[in-house]
């Protein structure tokens, strides 16, 4: 018997990641983004042949991906090294050099639709409106742009376009919990929910040939449901509602007899078919627990991209009531049973609010006794039953991983999500501490063996917990976290600034609270070893947020390491950078915890 070396952390980090996909009009080819070469590129898969071929060598993240209406070429929007400013390109079906379609450095172009004849693109752009964006139509042949609707009091998002291009739906984004939907025709707009105030979310929408709009909304409810707006009678009605589940995406079948919806049910996603004529519904059993994207081909088949906690994102095709797996992304050298299947736990917080969380257990032979607290980003986001390489790496290395969905997380109703607005540093922090106490009460945690590691808002919470409760943690890892709420409010992208008052707070009106909730207030108490990681091109949490806390801690003598990636933004898209990040994290923890 030949002895084989146990796979290390690189096995997880060299696992490929599929981000998004598009299906050709003839349903023969799927184009998708994957990092097979170590950086994100576009690949094509001819379904009947089953082996992908490379289309690009750009090494950048794609935002929008679609085939032209006649299937003769591909349209794709890419940013540059994480700057989150997508530019529009075309490329041949067999790949090769990109042809610029709509590019302007420093400008965002978010594509949403293409005309049926393939001659016009519809997108939102901040070329002349950096704060609120405009909805524009661009003629590919004449290279002329028309502004259809200017944003004035909230950022605009284009949702669905009618076949004759005379009608479209769009949304005004006031905050993550206030998104109002409208229908536009001949220069006039009307709300999809007549008489409703702004305290609701209008989500995904689709347009029928008769002008009927089907969309998701939580107007008047905690959880989003399927609704219908009749353009002719200007009436709104609920169509399909689920108990404690929020509908988040809506697909209309080609014959317009049925709808397919994806709903979030706590930490899992579900799919349902809904018969428009009879009003009946059936669950469509999924091959995944979390859906990244669901689309319908011209022939009426469903294609889904999704994952489970122990299986990375793959693409599946639904034919004759069965799912066929089209891609086969695996973790090199490991079987699924060697990964950690998280336990879903629930516990009461300090005020009785129920918090749901995921708990990853290492296999007994690897267990080192330490727990990693993993606060998620957002903060209006959630940890779910998807493949999480970070959690799996830590569990494989012997750490128990605790991921709580504290107040402010999505998937638990509108009121729950709003609880973080204007309260970044109090309620969520106490929810986390209650979770640690709960685990300790169940003998599932050793209080002197806890590490905190988080990114984005999770990085902010890492810093705040380290500063306010240093006695509870042995080390801290902050990845692109906010260190100072005042400077954060000033440096976010222009299109974010209108929401900051509600989301985070006002620098003058809420000065005392912002001081109290800023990690930089508690520098003197940050005494435990810390690793700080930052992308130099991060447009959301700019590098200065990490610079200021690193410099201050270095001056006071706190043991701190600083890792900066010059070619990344708010997240890490290149495999070698991800390997460097987590090898550094594992080495840092081993050195300071002696595990």
TrEMBL record:
Top-level lineage group: Bacteria
Against PANTHER family, the record matches this protein to: DIPEPTIDYL PEPTIDASE FAMILY MEMBER 6, SERINE PEPTIDASE S9 FAMILY MEMBER
InterPro entries given for it?
6-blade_b-propeller_TolB-like, AB_hydrolase_fold, Peptidase_S9_cat, WD40
Q: What is the lineage of its organism?
A: Bacteria, Bacillati, Bacillota, Bacilli, Bacillales
The protein's name is: S9 family peptidase
> In which organism is this protein found?
Shouchella miscanthi
Positions of the Peptidase S9 prolyl oligopeptidase catalytic domain: 386-593
Q: What keywords are assigned to this protein?
A: Hydrolase, Protease, Serine protease
Where, if anywhere, are coiled coils annotated? none
